[in-house]
Amino acid sequence: MTARPKPSALVWLVLSVVVIVLDQWSKAWVLASLPEFQAVKVIDGFWNWYRTYNTGAAFSFLSNAGGWQIWFFTALAIGVCGLLGTWLSRTARGDWRVALPYSLVIGGALGNVIDRLMHGHVVDFIQWYVGDHYWPSFNIADSAIVCGAVGIAAFSLFDGKRRAKAG
Known about the structure:
Elements: H1 13-33, E1 40-43, E2 47-54, H2 68-89, H3 96-119, E3 122-130, E4 133-134, H4 140-166
Antiparallel strand pairs: 1-2, 2-3, 3-4
């Protein structure tokens, strides 16, 4: 059994809470202020606010699956958060290369879980585009998940190279 470091990186869950609060605050603003399915220009030629909903996962994966996917993605997110939380508890507090991305993924995943449980879908509102090419709309939780996943991959790759040189 792996010894738990003292102090552990569980304090990084504060970042997860910050992500959840910012995500839910922004979605409350969107629901109160933005019209549905109408682009509101932020930066012409690049960025709109565009209120839309996603019952699936990234890129609307399984969005038309009949409803079961809401529970599937909720259970998957909770499972991933539990796993990452366990790994955080086994990580030293100062190991930010592990703690930061895990905390971002946890906060983003739980932000979207809250939407699924409250609304039956995820509220998306950030739309980037160039010309006639539009990126699927997303939200702050999605951004945190992507940044966290990229961080996990990048830091794992660089850490592996660093350990190989040291060994």
